[in-house]
Design goal:
about 280 residues; globular; alpha/beta; eight-stranded mixed sheet; Rossmann fold
């Protein structure tokens, strides 16, 4: 089932309407910089609390690294792992702003990884997605030496990071995904300013949209209350597509959150989303 069948608004929008609908900051007055600052501040505080982590190179390029934060476990024990893939429309942010949730997981005996990737336009979207796949393959291949359980890795991502997490889960076996405010159908981005760095044509946008494949892992698909209708519809449509092909999927809106702060639900293990992640990890 094509995702566009559920997105009943964007095909009839003017270019200006589509630009606004796919600009998440339009719901918060246009300025998302305070949230980026919060990512950076809270990530710096996290590293001050639990240490800088271990930088792991998964490829030869400068951005092909991740920061791995490990709990202290008895010798021989392997830690379950939460991997976070940042958003920023594939053009902004880095692992440096992505470790804000690490202390909550590490202090509860779960490893946490903040993944970096080459940003557009220095890499195209197909290359970015392949980098993320390469990162997870590297973690699985080297899991034992990194003190990780290769059978218990959960991918999380926000916005464009949710798209990348879903792309990875389509091709690399992981335990589960937790997807925040994702964009999965990329066709409506063609013709918007978002596409200036991506340079997608409609065919490429269709090919790089996420159509879940058989075997896609159990998932949580969630979004903030204060989001554009199109972003909400993207998540809802993706959840429907998962359920239609037999994947266990919980979908819900998170009250009081917007596109940019919804990911802070990961920083508190008592939130419903973190509790769902823990339950998926323990299946």
């Amino acid at each position: 089932m094509a995702l566009t069948e559920h997105l009943v608004q964007w095909p009839t929008m003017t270019a200006a309407q589509r630009e606004e609908a796919y600009s998440p900051s339009s719901c918060i007055g246009g300025n998302y910089q305070p949230f980026v600052d919060a990512y950076a501040t809270q990530s710096a505080a996290a590293r001050a609390e639990i240490g800088p982590g271990q930088e792991v190179a998964y490829g030869p390029q400068p951005a092909q690294t991740l920061d791995l934060f490990l709990p202290t476990l008895p010798p021989g024990d392997l830690a379950p792992l939460v991997v976070f893939i940042h958003g920023g429309y594939w053009q902004e942010l880095s692992k440096s702003e992505s470790s804000f949730a690490a202390p909550s997981w590490v202090t509860n005996n779960v490893a946490f990884a903040a993944l970096d990737y080459t940003l557009a336009p220095h890499a195209n979207l197909a290359e970015i997605a392949e980098e993320c796949c390469q990162a997870i393959r590297h973690l699985k291949t080297h899991a034992t030496e990194l003190n990780l359980d290769p059978e218990c890795m959960v991918l999380t991502g926000s916005s464009a990071g949710a798209h990348l997490a879903a792309m990875v889960a389509n091709t690399v076996s992981v335990k589960a995904t937790v997807l925040f405010s994702g964009i999965y159908d990329l066709v409506p981005l063609v013709g918007t300013s978002i596409n200036e760095a991506l340079q997608l044509n409609e065919t490429q946008a269709q090919e790089l949209s996420v159509q879940p494949q058989p075997g896609f892992p159990s998932s949580v698909v969630c979004w903030g209350e204060n989001e554009t209708t199109e972003f909400k519809a993207q998540s809802q449509a993706f959840a429907v597509a998962l359920q239609a092909q037999g994947t266990e999927c919980q979908q819900y809106e998170i009250a009081g959150r917007n596109h940019f702060d919804v990911v802070f639900e990961l920083s508190d293990l008592s939130t419903p989303t973190s509790q769902h992640l823990i339950s998926l990890m323990n299946v």
